[in-house]
């Protein structure tokens, strides 16, 4: 049987079909235009990112957050190839894209790269998209189908509205250390970005960045549960943080320490860079958790855990109440701690939430009712702000041995006073408590420079350790029991 002769149009049709089937296929085919003369290096993470961007196109995902180390093609995939793919293989040349970064030059770089691909002979032979001649600039261009691409800085994202809003690195590494810069980005995120949607019900937002600070844009999104699909891919795999998403993706790595992109960043390169960067930069930029694993001051490996509470001597309740209930403020926290007959301190229970004054008192009373008994000695609350009001109300009502505590020293000093007890294995946590992960994360994120997001669970813990371990047996609650 004679070989089938393929015409040039047959070859073009085959390439169109290949590119339309997946964004990853398109990336491979378009690479020679994007980086002429440079070999394309593929990694499984590219497929993962492309699959989530495809879900943005299909409407499965309308809010996407990607945390990934630098050098892993995050900008090229999100800000260049995906827009080109929608204009070409997916037949959406009418789509309008806003690409923002912390510095307009970076957004302009990606906008120019998209224009270079779309205007190339290769792209035009497959998907002819004609540009409007008088609207073809380095920061903005339009096509004849009504689609356009705009580059801007995060801090100046006004004017146009898009089908797709892309925030690619809303913070610089240096800028993330500035509270003013972080607040500017967050203000734009909460106040300006929502108004840039062409269609509030279908327009999408994609944020792609490395983690640089607990209170960066990613931290805000995750803290406030804003409905973003979260694709988090650390450089070195951490099994307890294995990423899985709603479209069925699960990080395929098996062993702790497995690399994300060994084809480009092999072990010797990663170790070389880690030695230069230091633990804080590695934690944020490589591992996507802006505090060193195990903690900078309170190391996670120091904690002890229990499955069954041992025989106990007595219990105390400690509380930290927030000044306000707005989302940006800390939580109010009630903790029940017990002193074991083995001399160790056990966290028995915790209740955490954001409550106004009447509800705060009700939650305090319910927590006391849950844990009161002959061996529960008292209820200790910081005598400040809402705590002062709580103490006064409960004292008037009677029935609960409540006492105010003055915290005259700064939090860092109080933590340093008790950290040796944790290191010595004298503080034990419930291994299956629902609040355990948040408690441990808050402790490992605690820093001397107040860069952590929340520390409300640390205050009552320090009170408990100071009272129940770091002093002689006759503490304030034994005295209170005689009153």
Structure description:
This protein is an alpha/beta fold and 483 residues long. It folds into two domains: 8-286, Rossmann fold, CATH 3.40.50; 300-481, Nucleotidyltransferase, domain 5. The protein is elongated and about 90 Å long. β6 (164-168), α7 (179-192) and β7 form a beta-alpha-beta unit. It has an eight-stranded mixed beta sheet with strand order 3-4-5-2-6-7-1-8, sandwiched between helices. A seven-stranded mixed beta sheet has the order 9-15-12-11-10-13-14, sandwiched between helices. The protein is built from 16 helices and 15 strands. It has helices at 8-21, 23-34, 44-58, 74-87, 104-118, 121-126, 179-192, 217-223, 267-277, 279-286, 357-371, 386-397, 411-423, 436-445, 458-468, 476-481, and strands at 63-67, 96-101, 131-136, 140-143, 148-153, 164-168, 204-209, 229-232, 304-306, 312-320, 332-340, 345-353, 376-382, 402-405, 427-430.
Number of helices: 16
The CATH superfamily title of the largest domain: P-loop containing nucleotide triphosphate hydrolases
Assign the structural class, choosing from mainly alpha, mainly beta, alpha/beta, alpha+beta, or little secondary structure: alpha/beta
The best one-word shape is: elongated
Largest sheet, described in full?
8 strands, mixed
Radius of gyration: 28 Å
What's the arrangement of strands in the largest beta sheet?
3-4-5-2-6-7-1-8
The overall strand count is 15
Please, what is the average pLDDT? 89
